[in-house]
Amino acid sequence: MEGLLTPFDYEYMRNAMMVSAVIGAVCGMLSCFVALKGWSLLGDALSHAVVPGVALAWILGLPFALGAFASGMLAAWVMGFIRRNSRIRGDAAIGIVFTAFFGLGLVLLSLFPSNIRLRTIIFGNVLGIAPEDMLQMLLVSAGVLLVMMWRGRDMVLWAFDATQAQAIGLNTRLLQTLLLGSVAAVAVAAMVAVGAVLVIAMLVAPGATAYLLTDRFGRMMALATGMGAATAFAGAYISYFLDGSTGGVIVTLQAMLFVIALVFAPRHGLLAARRARREAAA
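Below the sequence we write its predicted structure tokens.
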């Protein structure tokens, strides 16, 4: 029994579990909007588009978070510009922009060698998280919560029906900007914990899992937030005993929950759908 409590004896593990849980909760909450809006690929793009911002911030002596956030928002604007002003489909615009930004980031990191390790950007390093990174994550999480408290109801309506939201006088452009900014900020914060490659899973899997389990958005958000926090905390804890990638363990746990929900969800799971087809045939 004492061996199971060993991770709590080390400060770096306590920090890793706390930070992972906070970021997991915020990612889980935002993943509900990502799932409803079909922004999964956009989340992936934003998580990769921050790389040149990190490199430029180091070159110019600016905070990494500022450069990453600015790079993510610029990438989102470029994607929207291409989609609005050309025949290119949305998914193609996203693919072109995020690969271009990621490639530019790799070029900058190779031309201007720094103490930024590409492996850390891609895979994260929550076990070696610095105090300033912890503060950054807490501030980002608090900022996202404030945005949700301020315009959360309007965002829910816009996520379900953008046309109706615009018809009743809501500023849909502002709502889109707020949500994009929140996703970009969380992607920057979560990048330190799980890396650019795995951020997309934390921004998609909890919401997709909760979507299979309930038809009510409030319950969906509560489930996704709880699953995000629980799997992130458990992933950091289990990684100590496995001596493996913390981000990889977190995402694996989230994928396992999704598979379980996909099969056993009471109304929208594969078994429930099979039962409904049998009853209809009978």
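The mean pLDDT is 82.
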